[in-house]
Structures are given as C-alpha cells and as structure tokens.
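It is worth pausing here to work through a concrete case rather than discussing structure prediction in the abstract. The textbook approach is simple: state the sequence, then state the predicted structure, then interpret. We follow exactly that order.
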Amino acid sequence: MKDPLNIFGEIAAVIKNRLLSAEVYATGSRASSKNGKKWDFDIIVVHDEKETPRYIEDVLKEHFKDCKDEHNNPVKVDVWYVRPELKERFISKINLGKNVKLL
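Step two, the predicted structure:
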C-alpha cells in the first residue's frame, strides 16, 4: 500500500469514530501500490445502517481540509458505501486492484 503518511489509517479512524460497526477498506491505485496520476484516497465503507451515511464525506472533507499528501497535494477522499450482504460481490466487481481492510 502506498501511504507513507498513514492517511488511510487516519481516514479509517475518523469513519470508525462515527460508524462503530463499519468495516473500512482501502482500494484503488494507492492500495495496490500502482503508480498512477491520481493520488486520491479510495475507501469502501461496509455498514449495516438502513440509510447511507453520506455525512461521512463532509466529515472527512472538514477533517482533511488543510492536509496535504506526500506530494503536497490536497487530501481527497472518495467513499463508496456498501451493505454487508453485497460486500463480496461489490469488491470483486470494482476491479480497482488490491483491497486492504483497514478497520
């Protein structure tokens, strides 16, 4: 995983602080350590709430508003929400590389 500043860990902690039962996965080029031009942080949140907790995106945006990654780019987090019963099917279909469970 390509994350020398442990930003994925911080993202997972912020999410788990609000969604205690969630599973958090890193995915995308950073999780698979591929060299890509995009340096955002792709996250999959598996949760069992009936409504999608879209407010998490706002919480993350506020938390990282003044933060930079190792290349001095603003930290941008893309979040995908998945219900537990659809987790395996979703993760196998997105084909974004290796998915790494964070919490």
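Step three, interpretation. Helices lie at 7-18, 28-31, 55-63, 87-94. The domain at 7-101 is CATH 3.30.460.10 (Beta Polymerase; domain 2).
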